[in-house]
Amino acid sequence: MKAVMTVTASDRVGIIAGVCSLLADMGVNILDLNQTVMQGIFTMTLLVDTSTSSHSFDDIRSALIQRSEKENLNIHIQRADIFDAMHRI
Asked: Is the dihedral of CA 71, 75, 65, 52 positive or negative?
């Protein structure tokens, strides 16, 4: 299953490494990644494949929430099919 993730925070060293390491540890494959820094605000959007993981989507989301609280990040993950349905005209 594919999912869309966003990460925002004040820019600092290690944000990408921390998030991507967590995903790798959970067996989640990153299909696409785009990041930028705008006036000191780090933003990253990822398309990930959770079907390669032995963890449930809810477990992945919980781990990301824990990471976001620990590292003062704003992380959202949503199933791609729901994301697509919400953005159809």
From this structure: negative
CB 68 within 8 A of CB 18: no
| Domain at 2-87: CATH architecture | 2-Layer Sandwich (3.30)
Query: How many helices (H) does the chain have, and how many strands (E)?
Result: 3, 4
**Can you tell me which residue has the tokens 């490494």?**
17
Question: Is the pTM here over 0.85, yes or no?
Answer: yes
pLDDT per residue as tens, the chain (89 positions): 999 999 999 999 999 999 999 999 999 999 999 999 999 999 999 999 999 999 999 999 999 999 999 999 999 999 877 766 666 65
For residue 47, list its beta bridge partners. 4, 32
